[in-house]
Write a sequence for this structure.
């Protein structure tokens, strides 16, 4: 770490992430800060989008490192605020439930003593950022089946919370039977395709929705999206592919197409749900491009990261 002789560290902790795991991490974090005599501040989020407010404030106060302590949602809010601060280095201490973005950087699920040392050594990589209709995403976006499942979980969040995984699985099973594929016109680097899609995923990272490897070849720093398009399927084919996705072994299926591109446009014949890193939106037209090496992150160089040039 040589960004400055006495760097300033800011830690943004989401106290509800991981059902309280983040608060356990915060206690250890305070010990690690004191042990290293770091010039550091810790702030806890209090509401939706508060991490963005805190991150921007820290950036304007000339902090060198801004670290999200939480899950993918906390990271997303923090990173959105910092895309226009090129000198800032971002960090992530995983404390959520999914922690998909942490996989890109090879961050361990829980930090041990040696992991804290590696983290504060601050090995730095540059990663890409996605943009759809002006909105940013950092891991992946999706249309089709998974977006519709997300809609139903969003509409009845209290039911999902009460029923836990069973409710979520229930929504998956319902849409496995009844989801109707979407008609899309896809403009991929000037080549136009008309497809009826069950799933259409555009990703920077590999892991998605807490453990689905829809784009298992992706690197987060190559300036390209990895795009997985699953065409219209019968019920047996749907089950077959969804069973393969957690291991990333679905690419050989004849109904699966896999591409790479730095930009694309999609048009759907009616307004549909889509998500950016799990955040829901609705639209008919999608203008998608990648911002190469837009953010700098701390990563673990000896881990199994999804980076091609670090």
């Amino acid at each position: 770490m040589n960004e400055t002789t006495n760097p300033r560290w800011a830690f943004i902790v989401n106290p509800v992430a991981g059902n309280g795991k983040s608060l356990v991490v915060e206690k250890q974090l305070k010990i690690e800060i004191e042990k290293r005599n770091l010039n550091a501040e810790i702030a806890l989020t209090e509401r939706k989008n508060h991490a963005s407010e805190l991150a921007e404030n820290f950036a304007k106060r000339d902090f060198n490192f801004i670290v999200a302590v939480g899950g993918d949602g906390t990271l997303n809010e923090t990173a959105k605020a910092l895309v226009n601060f090129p000198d800032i280095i971002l960090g992530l201490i995983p404390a959520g439930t999914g922690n998909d973005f942490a996989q890109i950087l090879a961050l361990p699920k829980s930090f041990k003593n040696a992991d804290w040392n590696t983290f504060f050594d601050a090995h730095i990589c540059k990663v890409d950022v996605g943009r759809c209709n002006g909105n940013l995403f950092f891991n992946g976006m999706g249309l089709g089946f998974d977006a519709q499942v997300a809609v139903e979980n969003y509409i009845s969040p209290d039911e999902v919370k009460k029923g836990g995984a069973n409710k979520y699985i229930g929504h998956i099973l319902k849409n496995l039977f009844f989801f109707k594929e979407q008609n899309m016109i896809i403009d991929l680097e000037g080549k136009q395709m008309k497809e009826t899609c069950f799933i259409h995923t555009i990703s920077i990272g590999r892991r998605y929705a807490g453990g689905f490897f829809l784009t298992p070849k992706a690197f987060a720093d190559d300036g390209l999206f990895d795009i997985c398009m699953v065409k219209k399927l019968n019920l047996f084919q749907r089950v077959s592919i969804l069973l393969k996705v957690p291991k990333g072994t679905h690419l050989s299926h004849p109904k699966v197409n896999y591409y790479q591109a730095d930009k694309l446009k999609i048009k759907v014949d009616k307004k549909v749900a889509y998500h950016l890193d799990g955040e829901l939106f609705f639209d008919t037209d999608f203008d998608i491009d990648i911002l190469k090496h837009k953010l700098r992150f701390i990563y673990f160089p000896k881990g199994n990261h999804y980076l091609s040039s670090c």
Summary: The first strand starts at residue 8 and ends at 13. The CA atoms of residues 43 and 265 lie 39 Å apart. The chain has a mean pLDDT of 93. The domain at 8-122 is CATH 3.40.50.10330 (Rossmann fold).
